[in-house]
Structure formats: C-alpha cells, structure tokens
Write a structure and sequence with these properties.
Keywords: Signal. InterPro entries: Cell_wall_metabolism_enzyme (IPR050570), Dup_hybrid_motif (IPR011055), Ig-like_OmpL47-like (IPR058094), M23ase_b-sheet_dom (IPR016047). By secondary structure, this protein is mainly β. 3% of the residues lie in helices and 47% in strands. The strands form 15 sheets. Strands 52, 53, 54, 55, 56, 57, 58, 59, 60 and 61 form a ten-stranded antiparallel beta sheet that branches. Strands 29, 32, 33, 34, 35, 37, 38 and 41 form an eight-stranded antiparallel beta sheet that branches. Strands 18, 20, 21, 22, 23, 25 and 26 form a seven-stranded antiparallel beta sheet that branches. The protein is elongated and about 145 Å long.
Length: 764
C-alpha cells in the first residue's frame, strides 16, 4: 500500500512539472525538495542532516519554499532551514518557537511559504541548495513534504526592445536616473482617454499605477500612456527620438494629440508620440511611411493638441504603446483594448486593465496584458542581510548595515521608485528608493534600535537651480508626505549621507531657487463699443500678451508663452495677435519659465461686432410715470437740457459715443394721467438737423385701462389698449390705410425709435 501511495505521488509530481498551472498569466513550476522524512541520530545527527540541490532555469518571478506544489500550505521543516547559491546569497531561518521571555523553546513550528527569490539568479542553470539543520535536538528531526515553487511570469514571446524617447544620455544621465521621473502615469484601472468610453463616476479622480498603487494624487485618471516633461529634464524643442527602429508615419487627425508620429516596430507593437512641434518632423505627410533607426530624431518636443496644465503642463512627450491583439496590422482597431503599459504590471495581484471587460462597436473586449518592454531594467536589488553586516548598492543609493544590525538572516528588497514633487518648492533630484526588510514569509521590519547609513550620489545631476543649504535625504511612509532626515552633504564627493533607524521610502530632495510660476496678462485694444469687452471691426482688435517671471531676482527668465483661440490648437506666442472678423473670441494662455514652473491657464473673452449706428428709443416708465430716452440696443452717455425755440421751451437730449452723437429735440405735455411726447427734430453728429413731421406718443392711464397711442406722420397709427380686469391687450395698427386688429393675453408695451432720420416702432 505504501508503495502504491508513493507511486501515485511521483506521478502527480511529474504531472505538475510537465503540465504547469497558469494563474493570471503566471506559470507555477514545482520542484520536489523532499518527501516527509524522520531522522534519528546514533548517537547524534550531523549539524546538516539533509540537503538537496534544485537545478532550474530562471528569468523572472518569485521563488518560494512551500509545503504544497502550488506554492501554498504550511509544513514542518525541522528546527533550521537554509537556502543558498554560490556567489548569489545564503539564508537561514530558525523555525523553533520562543517562550514568554523570548527565549528559544526548541519546539519546531510549521513554516508558511518562504520567499527565497533573493538567492536566485537570472540563468538557465540555477543550483539552489536547500539544507535542513538541527538547533537543539541532535537525536531526532522530523520534516514534511517540501517544494521549491517558481511563479514564472516570463513570456518568451516578448523581448524588451524600447528605450526612452529623448536623449537623456546627452545630459550625462543614465536610464535609471530618468525612467521614473514621470509626469503622468498609465492608468491600469481605465486607460480610456483615446475613446469616448467613460469610467464609473467613483473612479474619475483615481488611477492605478504599474505597481498596483491606487492614487488620488498622481496624474491622471483615464490616461493611456506616459507624459515626460520638466521632471524628466525634457524641454521644449528637445529632439524626440524613436524608442526603437521601425516604420514611422505622421498623423494629424486627433485634435487633442496635436502633431503625432506613429512607429510600427515589426513585432506586434506600435509606439505613438503626441504634442510634437510642427517643425522638425521626420515626415508631415499623412500616410507616408519612413524607415527610422533606433534613437533617430523623429520630431521635437512641443505642445500641440491638448496640453493644459491639468495634466502634464506645457511642452512634453506623451508616449503610448499599442499591441496588435488581433494581428491584422491595423493598430487603430486595438484602441483601447490593445493599449499596454511599457513598465508592465509589477504586482502579484491581477491587473485590473487586463481583466476589464467592455463592449465596443458591438464587440466584447478586454484590456491587453502589459509586459515590461524597456530594454534596460529598473534598479532592483533582492538580497540577504546577515548579522555580520552588509553593504548594498542600487544605482545612486548605497546602504551600509553595521554588524549586529539584525540578529538573524533577513531578506532585503531595495527598489527604485518614482517620486512626485512634494510641493511647488521641494523637488526630488533623481529617483527615490523603497527599502523593505522581511523574513521571507509575513513579517516586515521597519524600526530598529541601531542605525544604518544611506548614501546618495548626485554626480552628473544638475543641482545649480536649488538652494545650496536645502539638500536633504527625505523619508516617507506613503510616498506623499515627506520628512527631512539629518543629512550630511559632501559637495566635493557629490554625496549625501544620512543615518536612519527606520525603513520606508527615501529620496534626495532640494528646494528650488525659483518655485513661483510666471504671471501672464493679456492687453486688448481696439475700437470699443459701450458694452463691456465688445469691439467694432472698424479697426483691428490687437492682443498683446505680457509675461513677467516671478520672483524678479534669481530667476532664469521665461521659457515660452503659449495660447490658443477658442478650440484651435495651442501655439507659441511671439508677437501681437490681430483680429477683425465678427464673432466671439475666447483666448487661453499661460507661460512656463526656465525653471519649469508652469502657470495656470488664464483666459480673456471679447467679441467683435459691426459698428452700431447710434439711434434713440423712447419708452414710457409706468412705475414712475415718465418718458425715457435711451440709445437703441446699446448703452451710451446721455445728457438733457432745456432749450428755447421761438420762445418756447423744448427738451434737448444728447446721446454720445466715442465716434457718434445724436441730438433729439422733444416736447412733452402732461395733463392729469395723460402724457404726450413729440419729436421736433433730430441731428446726427454735425449734420443739418432733420425736422420731423407731426408725430405723437400718447399715454392715457385710467383705473382699469392703459392706452398707448403712436402717430407717425399721419401714415401710421398704433393703438394698444390693456384691460386690467381681463389681463388682455387689444392691438390696432393702421398703416397705409390698412387696418389690423388682434387681442393678446397679458400686458404689451409700445415704444418707438429713430432710424436714420425716420421713426419706427416695436411692441414688446
């Protein structure tokens, strides 16, 4: 029976090895370390009483020791278990429990899955030695089934091939210095920016990064690529480079994208470059295909399209990667389901984008799987810290742990991470690091009695635009709120050093000399009307945009000012703007200084109209029982005086604009609820006064009735009678001997106005 059980077990193990299971596109590969065993010493066991070397290939993924072949389960492994590989690392863990005084009680405990990735190397030939040792009991040890399990996330069909799309090496920087200087991230929740699809309302301000970090602070929700700008030392008019060799085409059909280059790389992937300058494009002919080499200039950094500071403000590169999921060579039909993140998905949990299902054009779709596509790796260290001390380097950071900093072997994860600007004044210099110490199972160590040293080298990094005494290594538990550590700065060696006794995220930061955005104003000039922000087309409307850099001392000056008119594209401002077409205008503008400070978008509105002829309109104010004379369809200054003509008194009303003047001479008679007004003459500017034929405007106010009567040169007679009880107005119009009559609900008001020397009327 025992033989049969063993045979079945071996067959199941072989099946697991030959037919590995896939979870979230991660292949689980299991290697048997040992079946359950008991060891009896005669008279004593050797210190190492059992060991086995596991040989396997490794490219990426986690490696654990576990009781079950799927990487789960708890099991007895004796008192001490160790894993090591020559020239890579070694780790030991004591599995005995402790009593209430914290002293070893020599009682082995079950072990949960133990992460030993730190002793594995990228190689086709890993030889990991697993050893079982005794600690207290030299005569008897018991161990249960144990497997080495590799969660293999390597995809042999994908080869990293991309480089960053600007010449960072020309500034003396390495890939690791700038790859995480990200302005706006790819949103793994809903990267739907290039579509008319909407994300749920509760996610409108949230994004998920490639490390499965959910954030309300990082920019920005729905974003389907990466923006690289000031933070990555990408400046306006810098060359944009092909991220890999391929075939380039120019696209100008996306208003928000601006001038765009697509590059097909012949491997199922296409890269897209948005917001380029109109000058310097490798081609500006839509549909034309141009072969480009890796790192060949294809355009210049610009701000065409939608580059409001709400996202990555000002000139920047929007970089996007699309995978041809259906393999038809048409990448447009893979928007958005083929959009991928070149940083991959760096989490053990499933990628929300890959698992998001949606309907588009009558087809059910889901997001594409993202692979790490940069041909250079992010700076990542996974190693073991021993009680005898360690020194570990990761890119520009160096950690030094003194002897007895830890009392037993622990695992160290030491990764570079992106750091957002802490404030307008405080800015990171280079990438940050996230440092974790843990036991490989479930216990993480963050605070210590002893201190360790963290060094940061700022060689070849530009620190000239920071306040000299402001540099410090900062720490943060959440990546948002940063606290300065006591830091020593060695300018000769270009190194910053801090002694700390806690683990978290760290970054080297400084305070900018100039952290204030420019101030831009628009001055509008032209021939105005008497309405606010309204101009006539008699002369051009001229807009001068003026910018000052703040503060006025210690700044580098203005880099550029951009503007757009209504829904047109953004353009760089170089000279005054001229407008003479009739219409309404909205001008948007903002400036960027040479320290990378970006102003919020400002706007100015104005309209251009045909010149309004100056005419007068006469109405009756029923509340105050008086006639009112105003300019028709505009507001102008008005003055009134009494004049005498042939010893009779008349009212002379003068209406004035900047270019025109109109004088009305009128006569008003008032007799107990009867009000009469007649226009005697009109004079436009300095023309000869026009004598008006007989005309009268009469108002009769009675208890239940209001009557309005207008007579114009005996040719037109208009009568409005309002019945207060019925709330109806009877309108009678006699014009050229033709009589019209109608009855309308409510009160209607009669007025009359001048029209190039004549008189007309309207009913409101």
């Amino acid at each position: 029976m025992s033989f049969l059980k063993n045979a079945i077990f071996v067959l199941l193990t072989l099946f697991a090895l030959l037919y590995p299971k896939s979870i979230y596109a991660v292949t689980v590969r299991s290697y048997l370390v040992t079946e359950a065993k008991e060891f009896n010493g005669d008279p004593f066991l050797n210190r190492v009483y059992y060991n086995k070397t596991i040989n396997f290939a490794y490219k990426s993924g986690r490696v654990v020791l576990s009781h079950n072949p799927d990487g789960t389960g708890e099991g007895y492994v004796g008192e001490v278990i160790g894993a090591s590989q020559s020239f890579i690392g070694a780790f030991e863990r004591n599995m005995n429990g402790v009593n209430e005084k914290g002293v070893n009680d020599c009682t082995p405990q079950k072990m949960k899955p133990l992460d030993i990735t730190a002793v594995v190397k990228k190689s086709e030939n890993n030889n990991v030695l697993v050893r079982f040792k005794f600690d207290c009991n030299a005569s008897y040890q018991k161990i249960e089934d144990l497997y080495l399990v590799h969660f293999d996330d390597y995809d042999p069909n994908v080869t990293p091939f991309l480089d960053l799309p600007w010449d960072y090496k020309a500034d003396g920087k390495a890939f690791q210095d700038v790859v995480l200087q990200i302005g706006s991230y790819f949103d793994h929740t809903f990267p739907l920016l290039s579509t008319n699809l909407f994300e749920p309302q509760e996610y409108e301000s949230q994004l998920t990064t490639y490390k499965n970090e959910s954030s309300l602070d990082k920019r920005y929700s729905k974003h389907d690529g990466y923006d690289y700008g000031n933070l990555a030392f990408v400046a306006n008019n810098d060359n944009v480079l092909a991220a890999a060799a391929g075939q380039a085409t120019y696209v100008n059909t996306c208003t928000a994208c601006g001038n765009t280059i697509y590059i097909y790389h012949g491997n199922g992937y296409q890269t897209r470059y948005y917001h380029l300058q109109p000058e310097g494009l490798i081609t500006n002919v839509p549909g034309q295909k141009i072969v480009v080499n890796d790192r060949q200039p294809i355009g210049r950094v610009g701000f065409s399209g939608n580059v409001d500071p709400r996202g990555e403000g000002g000139a920047h590169i929007h970089f996007m990667v699309v995978f041809d999921k259906n393999g038809d060579g048409n990448f447009d039909d893979n928007i958005p389901d083929g959009i991928v993140d070149p940083y991959g998905w760096q989490s053990d949990n499933p990628d929300p984008w890959e698992n998001y299902m949606f309907s588009l054009n009558g087809q059910e779709k889901n997001g594409a799987k993202s692979h790490y596509l940069w041909k250079y790796g992010l700076s990542t260290v996974n190693t073991v810290i021993h009680p005898d001390g360690s020194s570990i380097i990761n890119n520009r950071y160096n950690l030094t742990f003194p002897k007895n900093f830890v009392t037993r072997d622990v695992f160290l994860k030491f990764n570079t991470v992106p750091v957002s600007e802490s404030s307008a004044e405080l800015q990171p210099i280079g990438a940050g690091v996230d440092i974790t110490l843990w036991d490989g199972i479930d216990t993480f160590f963050t605070n210590f009695q002893n201190f360790f040293t963290i060094d940061f080298s700022f060689t070849n990094l530009d620190i000239t635009r920071f306040k000299p005494n402001s540099f410090s290594i900062y720490s943060s538990a959440d990546g948002t709120n940063w606290q300065a550590e006591s830091t020593t700065i060695d300018l000769l060696k270009q190194k910053a050093t801090a002694q700390v006794n806690h683990l978290t995220q760290f970054a080297f930061m400084g305070q900018k000399i100039d952290s204030v955005a420019p101030v831009t104003t628009a001055i509008i000039s032209g021939t105005t009307t008497n309405n606010p922000s309204e101009y006539t087309n008699e002369t051009p409307v001229i807009i001068n945009i003026n910018t000052t850099d703040q503060p006025t001392i210690g700044t580098l000056g203005i880099d550029y000012t951009i503007f757009k008119v209504n829904d047109e594209d953004w353009k760089q401002y170089n000279s005054p703007l001229y407008f003479n077409e009739i219409g309404e205008y909205e001008i948007f503008y903002y400036s960027v200084d040479k320290d990378g400070n970006i102003e919020d978008v400002k706007e100015s509105k104005f309209s251009i109209v045909n010149p309004i002829e100056l005419e007068a309109e006469i109405t009756f104010d029923f509340e105050n029982s008086r006639f009112l004379i105003n300019a028709k369809d505009q507001t102008v200054p008005i003055s009134t005086e009494i004049i005498k003509i042939n010893k009779k008194e008349f009212d002379q009303t003068t209406l004035s604009t900047s270019s025109d003047k109109l004088k009305l001479v009128t006569k008003t008679d008032i007799k107990k609820n009867n009000y009469d007004l007649a226009i005697k003459s009109l004079q436009y500017n300095n023309d000869t006064p026009v004598e008006m034929n007989k005309n009268t405007f009469k108002i009769i106010i009675e208890a239940n009735k209001l009557t309005q009567i207008l007579n114009i040169s005996k040719q037109v007679k208009v009568r409005l009678i309002y019945n207060k009880r019925k709330d109806k107005t009877t309108i009678v119009i006699i014009e050229n001997s033709i009589r019209q009559k109608e009855e309308i609900n409510g009160f209607k008001k009669l007025s009359f106005f001048t029209s190039t020397g004549a008189i007309n009327y309207r009913i409101n």
